[in-house]
Amino acid sequence: MHLMFLPEANGSTRRYTLKKVMDGQVTKSAHPARFSPDDKWSRHRLAVRKRFAVLLLAQKK
Fold first, then answer.
1. In which element (H, E) is residue 45 found?
2. What is the C-alpha to C-alpha distance for residues 9 and 4, in angstroms, rounded to an integer?
């Protein structure tokens, strides 16, 4: 069992649970993704972000 969360309607609070589905909605993992310093796919992710202009620096305010 892993800790899961369900965001509230206002988006600023979360309800934590151990269930995968709560109130008919799929919950999300409350744990961060694993980090590996030896990331084999970072070059490809950056290329896709650059191609589709989703880099944080490229976003217009």
1. helix 42-51
2. 16
Burial class (CB in 10 A: 0-12, 13-18, 19+), 4: buried
CATH architecture of 1-31: Irregular (4.10)
Q: What SS3 state is found at 11? A: coil
pLDDT, tens digit, 9 for 90 and up, residues 21-57:
988 999 999 998 888 888 889 899 889 888 887 766 6
Q: Which contacts (CB < 8 Å, 24+ apart) does range 31-36 have?
A: 31/2, 31/3
